[in-house]
């Protein structure tokens, strides 16, 4: 029997499975008081998903507000937080929209589909802003490289990203891959997508205009990811066939590719008033959010939703997370043109309702009203928690455990090679070679470059020509954040900011994916609040606003959370993409220069981690003023054509930066360390540093630029030769570096 | 006369069509979009079947595309001499359409592979390779999961002895194809299929670190200037 509004009013005391749906008693009571009756099972479905941590940000909201209140003044920000993705002005009438989002838990349960649908979901967020998606990146974290479960999860995740992204036709231009025992059981799959659009073509998730049609288009709705709804279905209907349903969605990148091309034609034809993708919480989320931001009302006939499985119940339709679906609001005059474009791309489209001015979201199912709610109460007025927090009891002891006590190596050559072969510093080519980095023909730089760089000019046929380009990087260091979440988040931003700047791009805006343990653990909540505070403060200092992002809580096994892992993405712009700086040593006879000062900073370092399994002390000092000056120098030098190649100095220190720069194009170098202690000079992880090469005749002008911005500038030596030579310390042939760097991942995964 | 007109076909799921059209334009030709559902070749001088995952690679790569209305026009035209180039998924479609012999199967390593690959040009006599010299080594990207060329021994012998092996991988075979075959032609030399992507190696700024793919486009355009 359908649980209609009428029936709910008649049976006020019928018990409802709100606990199984993850709702607290007080949340359920709040729904009852909003509606003035018990919710129908369909309404309960809507409130339970919309008020979930994932959709409502109920534990994080009070902290995330800082991204707004502390936001730096920026002329570039066109659309800020709260929409599907932020949009920034990149000049010449162009705008970029980008966002990073987690798909951690599904990727652990079912690595291939979990990761694939993570890519699909973030791509639809970008599409729903009116943009053409132009590239993806992934920030990945797994347990130890040699852990058996890593062998299960990693190949599946990489294959899922490869399968979905390649088939979708989006170049994968960068990202990160980090191994640490803390992620066993809780791998992190954070997917980023960037899109481009004309500044005047931004679309928003809104449903204005009574009488306008609500169209559901894309894949048909099936029983994907509706674990929660089966609780409802079985509780209400005692139908066992609905009890066992897959919890992880299944992706069809082919349909997504059709959706992209279809949406772009719809935008081009200007037949869309408002648009929203269907992601988490599916139809529930799309209808409540569109209605809440529009005229305020909507009428939907759920019986019209095209189904892949005709036995689906309304609660399941509402909660289904079937992929590759979008919802649009279209005027009655444009509906025929809208449908014709969908048909040209073989994309099924169905009018399922219309916008009203009643202030109510009303849904019917076979002529019975099953939902009648004020949409804003589900979309915007979810619970907000100020969770208790306190510094972990172990924090002081952790910080006191200074790595200065660790024995230092006598053989620095062996140390460099051991680090270069270690899981986090080894070549990631085994993974990245499974991703198409060339499709669409606009890739200027991709991994292993510090940032991915794309040309803009030829993205959309017929659009205005421009020489501009964009650069994107993601970074995050869980060990640093564990030692000091405030500084750790700042260092993540600093590194991504620096990685964008070393390509010559001016950093513009930030997205973030905050991966943490349970918010119900006060120690985790302290880590979270410190990380958000650190990131918001750093964004203010560096002048780059947060445009959006995502929070992933509950990344923990039992009572053991992952390292707090804020992953930060930075988008930058190159006024002339032809002036981008190439990665590493590009030619012989160039001067090798280290920018920035090196202190003795080994807390959370790769050296301490790999050689000693040690995590303690404090992370490197996050000197944001130094980062800003460094970026200023890099951007101006690129603009003036003063630098030939560059590389960020970070994990593993100068030693690893030199080795990677050498490996970029098999060009060796002979250098002399500036400091007295070669171990510190090679392996310290002081931030705000970069390696650049300049032509000898440009050195004077470059040094003058550094002096003007007070950026320390040390001439280390010269590129060329078949080896990396650090005078008086070590000499390693390029071939040996390469063999060492490349062996590790294939040894584990190609068997 | 105007520039040669090269048709670039878009199937549902085609991905490299924009790149192919750009490469044609950069070489001085006119790129003419051809739509899978139209039985219309728009009187083009040559046709480029780009890479991608047409129809999601469902059933078998290229197996559905070969039945597209456009293909009903293209297949007889190719048999009559129209120059046709298929890269990656385009090569798979040409094999499925029996314009080229053999088939492309799952890579030996079972993974999708994207890398810059050295290629030996073995035949400079086809419609698409006139601007290369036989024995020339070029660098082009490969990016595919099903690029392992296979055919029965008699077919391989015929291809080898007939000079129809146009490209061979050197410095490592990315997919385990027989005899390191990267691309082949039909007997007449007007239809060429290869797994590598010349359209991603035509500019200094973007794509692979090479511009060795330009020759495909200049070869076909020159052919029509000479005619």
Radius of gyration of chain A: 26 Å
Q: Strands of the biggest beta sheet of chain A: in what spatial order?
A: 22-24-26-23-27-25-28-29
Largest sheet of chain B: 9 strands, mixed
Question: How much helicity do the residues of chain A have?
Answer: 25-40%
* Most extensive interface, chain pair and sizes: A-B, 33 and 30 residues
| Separation of the first and last Cα atoms of chain B | 11 Å
Return residue spans of chain B where pLDDT drops below 50 for at least 5 consecutive residues: none
Q: What would you note in describing this structure?
A:
The complex is a heterodimer of chains A (751) and B (227). Chain A is built from 26 helices and 29 strands. In chain A, 37% of the residues lie in helices and 22% in strands. Chain B contains 5 helices and 11 strands; from the N terminus they run E-H-E-E-H-E-H-E-E-E-E-H-E-E-E-H. Chain B has a 9-stranded mixed β-sheet, sandwiched between helices. A two-stranded antiparallel sheet of chain B has the order 5-8. The radius of gyration of chain B is 16 Å and the shape is globular. The termini of chain B are close together. The A-B interface holds A 159, 162-163, 166-167, 169, 252-255, 257-258, 345-346, 432-444, 455, 458, 461, 577-578, 750 and B 12-13, 15-16, 18-19, 22, 52-53, 55-58, 109, 111-115, 141, 143, 145, 197, 199-200, 203, 205-208.
Q: Briefly, what is this?
A:
The complex is a heterodimer of chains A (751) and B (227). With 751 residues, chain A is α+β, with helices and mostly antiparallel strands. Chain A is built from 26 helices and 29 strands.
Topology:
The complex is a heterodimer of chains A (751) and B (227).
Chain A: H1 5-10, H2 25-35, H3 41-50, H4 53-56, H5 61-69, E1 77-79, E2 86-91, E3 94-102, H6 104-109, H7 111-127, E4 132-142, H8 148-168, E5 172-179, E6 188-198, E7 213-218, H9 227-237, H10 253-268, E8 274-277, H11 282-293, E9 297-301, H12 314-319, E10 325-330, H13 335-344, E11 349-356, E12 361-365, E13 368-373, H14 375-379, H15 395-400, H16 412-421, H17 429-432, E14 443-445, E15 452-455, E16 469-475, H18 478-483, H19 485-501, E17 506-515, H20 522-542, E18 546-552, E19 556-557, E20 560-561, E21 565-574, E22 582-583, E23 591-595, H21 606-612, H22 624-639, E24 645-648, H23 653-665, E25 669-671, H24 678-683, E26 690-694, H25 699-708, E27 713-719, E28 723-726, E29 730-733, H26 734-749
Parallel strand pairs in A: 4-5, 9-12, 17-18, 22-24, 25-28
Antiparallel strand pairs in A: 1-2, 2-3, 3-6, 4-6, 7-10, 7-11, 8-10, 9-11, 12-13, 14-15, 15-16, 16-21, 17-21, 19-20, 23-26, 23-27, 24-26, 25-27, 28-29
Helix pairs in contact in A: 5-20, 7-8, 7-10, 8-10, 10-13, 16-26, 19-20, 19-22
Chain B: E1 5-10, H1 17-26, E2 30-35, E3 46-49, H2 69-79, E4 84-87, H3 89-96, E5 103-105, E6 113-121, E7 137-144, E8 148-150, H4 153-161, E9 165-170, E10 181-185, E11 191-194, H5 214-226
Parallel strand pairs in B: 1-2, 1-3, 3-4, 4-11
Antiparallel strand pairs in B: 5-8, 6-7, 6-9, 9-10, 10-11
């Amino acid at each position: 029997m359908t649980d209609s509004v009428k029936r709910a009013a008649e049976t006020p005391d019928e018990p409802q499975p709100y606990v199984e749906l993850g709702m607290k008693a007080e949340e359920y009571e709040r729904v009852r008081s909003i509606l003035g009756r018990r919710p129908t099972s369909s309404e309960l479905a809507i409130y339970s998903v919309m008020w979930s941590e994932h959709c409502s940000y109920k534990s994080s909201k009070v902290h995330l507000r800082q991204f707004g209140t502390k936001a730096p003044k920026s002329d570039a920000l066109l659309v800020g937080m709260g929409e599907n993705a932020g949009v920034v002005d990149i000049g010449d009438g162009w705008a970029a929209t980008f966002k990073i989002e987690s798909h951690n838990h599904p990727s652990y349960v079912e690595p291939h589909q979990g990761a694939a649908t993570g890519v699909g979901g973030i791509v639809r967020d970008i599409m729903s802003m009116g943009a053409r998606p132009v590239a993806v990146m992934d920030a990945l974290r797994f347990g130890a490289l040699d852990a058996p479960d890593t062998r299960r999860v990693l190949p599946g995740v990489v294959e899922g990203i490869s399968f979905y992204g390649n088939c979708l036709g989006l170049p994968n231009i960068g990202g990160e891959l980090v191994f640490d025992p803390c992620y066993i059981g809780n791998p992190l799959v954070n997917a980023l997508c960037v899109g481009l659009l004309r500044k005047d073509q931004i679309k928003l998730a809104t449903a204005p205009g009574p009488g306008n049609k609500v169209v559901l288009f894309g894949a048909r709705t099936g029983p994907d990811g509706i674990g929660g709804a089966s609780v409802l279905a079985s509780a209400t209907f005692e139908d066992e066939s609905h009890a066992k349903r897959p919890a992880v969605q299944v992706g069809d990148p082919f349909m997504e590719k059709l959706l992209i091309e279809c949406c772009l034609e719809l935008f081009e034809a200007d037949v869309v008033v408002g648009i929203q993708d269907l992601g988490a919480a599916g139809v529930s989320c799309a209808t409540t959010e569109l209605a809440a931001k529009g005229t305020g009302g909507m009428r939907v006939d759920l019986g019209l939703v095209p189904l892949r499985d005709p036995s689906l119940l309304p609660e399941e339709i509402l909660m289904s997370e079937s992929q590759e679906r979008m919802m649009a609001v279209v005027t009655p005059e444009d509906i025929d043109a809208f449908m014709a474009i969908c048909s040209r791309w073989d994309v099924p489209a169905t009018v399922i309702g219309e916008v009203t001015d009643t202030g109510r979201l009303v849904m019917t199912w076979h002529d019975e009203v099953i939902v009648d709610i004020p949409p804003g109460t589900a979309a915007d007025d979810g619970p907000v928690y100020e969770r208790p927090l306190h510094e972990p009891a172990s924090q002081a002891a952790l910080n006191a455990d200074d790595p200065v006590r660790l024995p230092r190596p006598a053989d620095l050559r062996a140390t460099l090679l051991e680090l270069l072969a270690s899981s986090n510093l080894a070549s990631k080519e085994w993974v990245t070679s499974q991703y198409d980095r060339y499709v669409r023909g606009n890739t200027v730089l991709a991994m292993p470059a510090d940032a991915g760089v794309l040309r803009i000019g030829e993205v959309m046929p017929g659009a205005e020509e421009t020489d501009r380009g964009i650069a994107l990087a993601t970074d995050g260091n869980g060990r640093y954040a564990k030692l000091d979440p405030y500084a750790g988040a700042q260092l993540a931003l600093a590194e991504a900011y620096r990685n964008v700047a070393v390509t010559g791009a001016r950093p513009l805006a930030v997205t973030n994916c905050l991966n943490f343990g349970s918010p119900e653990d006060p120690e985790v909540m302290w880590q979270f609040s410190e990380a958000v505070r650190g990131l918001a403060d750093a964004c203010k200092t560096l002048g780059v606003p947060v445009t959006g992002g995502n929070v992933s809580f509950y990344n923990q096994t039992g009572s053991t959370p992952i390292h707090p892992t804020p992953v930060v993405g930075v988008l930058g712009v190159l006024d002339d993409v032809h002036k981008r700086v190439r990665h590493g040593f590009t030619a012989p006879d160039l001067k090798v220069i280290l920018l920035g000062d090196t202190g003795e900073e080994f807390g959370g370092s790769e050296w301490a981690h790999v050689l000693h399994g040690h995590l303690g002390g404090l992370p490197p000092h996050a000197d944001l003023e130094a980062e800003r000056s460094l970026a200023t120098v890099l951007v101006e030098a690129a603009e003036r054509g003063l630098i030939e190649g560059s590389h960020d100095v970070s994990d593993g220190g100068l030693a690893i930066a030199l080795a990677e720069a050498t490996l970029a194009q098999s060009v060796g170098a002979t250098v002399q360390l500036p400091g007295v202690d070669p171990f510190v000079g090679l392996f310290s992880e002081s931030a705000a540093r970069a390696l650049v090469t300049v032509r000898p005749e440009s050195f004077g002008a470059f040094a003058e630029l550094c002096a003007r911005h007070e950026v320390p500038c040390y001439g280390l030596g010269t590129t060329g030769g078949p080896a990396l030579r650090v005078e008086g310390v070590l000499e390693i042939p390029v071939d040996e570096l390469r063999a060492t760097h490349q062996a590790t991942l294939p040894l584990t995964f190609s068997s | 006369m105007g520039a040669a007109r090269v048709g670039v076909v878009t199937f549902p799921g085609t991905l490299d069509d924009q790149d192919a059209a750009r490469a044609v334009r950069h070489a001085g030709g006119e790129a003419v979009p051809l739509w899978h559902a139209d039985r219309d070749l728009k009187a083009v001088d040559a046709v480029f079947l780009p890479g991608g995952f047409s129809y999601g690679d469902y059933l078998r790569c290229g197996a559905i595309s070969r039945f597209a209305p456009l293909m009903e026009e293209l297949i007889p035209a190719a048999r009559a001499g129209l120059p046709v180039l298929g890269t990656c998924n385009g090569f798979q479609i040409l094999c499925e359409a029996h314009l080229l012999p053999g088939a492309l199967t799952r890579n030996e390593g079972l993974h999708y592979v994207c890398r810059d690959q050295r290629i030996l040009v073995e035949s400079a006599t086809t419609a698409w390779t006139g601007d290369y010299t036989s024995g020339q080594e070029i660098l082009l990207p490969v990016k595919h999961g099903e690029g392992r060329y296979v055919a029965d021994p008699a077919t391989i012998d015929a291809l080898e002895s007939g000079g129809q092996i146009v490209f061979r991988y050197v410095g490592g075979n990315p997919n385990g194809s027989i005899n390191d075959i990267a691309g082949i032609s039909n007997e007449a030399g007007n239809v060429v299929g290869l797994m590598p992507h010349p359209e991603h190696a035509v500019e200094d700024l973007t794509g692979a670190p090479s511009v060795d793919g330009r020759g495909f486009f200049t070869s076909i355009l020159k052919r029509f200037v000479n005619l």
